[in-house]
Design goal:
Layout lengths: L2 H33 L11 H21 L5 H13 L3 H9 L1 H5 L18 E4 L2 E4 L2 E4 H26 L1
Antiparallel strand pairs: 1-2, 2-3
Helix pairs in contact: 1-2, 1-6, 2-4, 2-6, 3-6
């Protein structure tokens, strides 16, 4: 690989690492909020639901940031492991992002097995979130998030050391 290509790769890995870092902090924030009492809990009894929706988006954001670096085989392996351990995440994210289609059982929605009656039915029993017939274990999600971030960090450090 030419030095220019390595420099381009390093820039790409740095960007992936930076974006993933923000998502990892956001994941940590959402998990902390899920496990703590927040002042708004007295009035907003479904705050946990909102925090879980934000967690889903942050986990997806981390995965997308990692995909910037997926030309590195260790990052690609970590993405695969992340996906395998969080198998319900993509569907949860898709429904969250396209709730307008699912709320009216739009014929063009991606998963026709999910209908409007399922949207507001879920449970939170720490560490398990159940929704849409899927489970998200936030302890596993956090461990996988750290592994994914570390794979990006490692790819960045290795590439930087090769250039120097």
């Amino acid at each position: 690989m030419s030095s220019q290509n390595k420099n381009d790769l390093l820039v790409q890995l740095k960007r992936a690492k930076s974006l993933a870092n923000v998502q990892l902090f956001t994941i940590e924030l959402q998990i902390r909020r899920l496990r703590d009492f927040e002042p708004e809990d007295e009035k907003f009894v479904l705050r946990w639901w909102s925090d879980l929706q934000f967690l889903i988006l942050s986990l997806t954001g981390l995965r997308r940031a990692a995909s910037i670096a997926n030309s590195n085989h260790k990052v690609a392996q970590a993405i695969n492991e992340f996906d395998n351990n969080l198998s319900g995440l993509k569907e949860m994210r898709d429904v969250t992002q396209h709730v307008d289609e699912y709320a009216v059982d739009k014929s063009g929605r991606h998963n026709k097995d999910i209908n409007r009656k399922m949207l507001e039915v879920g449970s939170w029993n720490d560490p398990i979130y159940e929704w849409l017939g899927k489970e998200l274990n936030i302890d596993i999600a956090y461990k996988q998030s750290i592994k994914l971030f570390k794979s990006i960090q490692e790819a960045f450090n290795t590439t930087r050391n090769e250039i120097e």
